[in-house]
Design a protein that fits this description.
Elements (H helix, E strand, L loop, with lengths): L10 E3 L15 E3 L10 H13 L7 E2 L6 E3 L3 E6 L2 E6 L2 H13 L10
Antiparallel strand pairs: 1-2, 3-4, 4-5, 5-6
Length: 114
């Protein structure tokens, strides 16, 4: 989620326990530059970022006609649920090649093996 840009202005109060030099913590707000967990539209912002990255020239994933959270490519199928991605491929090499392509792009997605 923290990788996705916000599509509008979002402000939040300072978290409880934050020390401020002058005044009271409730006198200040933070303007968010990127999505964080808990925002209503964070999931959509992250999904849009991932969708654009998957459909970039060179990767050519296309969403399934039945479910837009399934992306299909020659050697891999991606299943997306909120901020989890399940990668299924014909071989381990195809999966590794796909994951490394996302790590080298400007998006720099982070994948863990859990």
């Amino acid at each position: 989620f923290p990788q996705a840009e916000l599509d509008g202005l979002v402000y939040m109060e300072l978290p409880i326990g934050t020390d401020v030099q002058q005044g009271h913590a409730r006198d200040y707000v933070l303007r968010l530059n990127k999505s964080i967990y808990g925002l209503k539209h964070s999931s959509l912002n992250w999904f849009n970022l991932l969708s654009l990255a998957l459909q970039k020239k060179g990767r050519d994933f296309h969403p399934s006609m039945v479910d837009p959270c399934i992306f299909i490519w020659d050697d891999c199928i991606l299943l997306i649920y909120v901020d989890d991605v399940l990668v299924v491929g014909k071989s381990k090499e195809a999966i590794k090649r796909f994951i490394s392509s996302l790590k080298t792009e400007t998006e720099a997605f982070k994948f863990t093996e859990q």
